[in-house]
Each structure stands twice: as C-alpha cells, then as structure tokens.
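A sample follows:
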Amino acid sequence: YDVEAIIRVGSAGGISDDVKLRDLVIGMGASTNSNYAAQYNLPGTIAPIADYGLLRKAVEVAEGRGINVAVGNVLSSDTFYNADPTFNDRWKEMQILCVEMEAAALYLNAAKLGKKALCLLTISDHIYTGEALSAEDRQNTFHEMMEVALELA
C-alpha cells in the first residue's frame, strides 16, 4: 500500500498520576511485556520508539489547540487483566504514563520496514483512581486525538 507513516489512535488506561481522563498521551517509547521483538533475533533488547518528526509535530498541534498532552513511555501489554496485583505498580515506578496494547508492535514493524509510526492515546480510565469514561463519552470525546492525527496525515 506504499504506507510511509502510520498513526495509531486509541484509548489507554492511565497509570501515572500526571495523566487524567481525556488527556492526550503521545507514546515516545513503548515498553512491553510482549515477546514480539523476539522474531527479529536481535543480539540484545531493542527500545521501540516513535518517529521523532511525527512526535514533534503532534506535540505542536496539540499544544496549539490547547489540548492537555503528556509525552513519554507507554506500556504495550499482552495481558488485559494481569493476575499479579503488583504488575502496574512496578511499571508506575518506571514512569510509565499509561497502558495499551499495540504501540510496541507498531513501532517495531515501522523500524524494521524503515517507516514512520506514532501512537496517540486518550486516557479512557485510570487504574489507580478508578475513574472511567462511559461508552458514550468514549464515543463522543476522542475527537481531539483524531484531529491531531488528521493534522499529521
């Protein structure tokens, strides 16, 4: 399809105390508990990261629109519900902003193919405060994230 850049938009669960419901999070890096990168047989551990040009432009667009934005490391987790009750605590200690499920694989695929990728997330719930948007709010309030993505396209 001759895709040169892909932008993921989606929801995420807040982990950091610095993110609130409806905040936009831009994933600069994507930590993961996945074994996805093993397929590349690298002689070490790779850090899946966003394309800096897309990231910089997304921050400029978001700030220009007055959107609450946080940029940093997100967690791409294979487990939606983890049996370990300390799982999120340990990621929070490492300054992870939120948890989602796709960014690490997206960033790794882009790196392998020499393409650009960025992950934009709206906080839909917060793991520590217990706050959560309703299904209607999720449907109707994610437009800011999508408008930022469209500005980058």
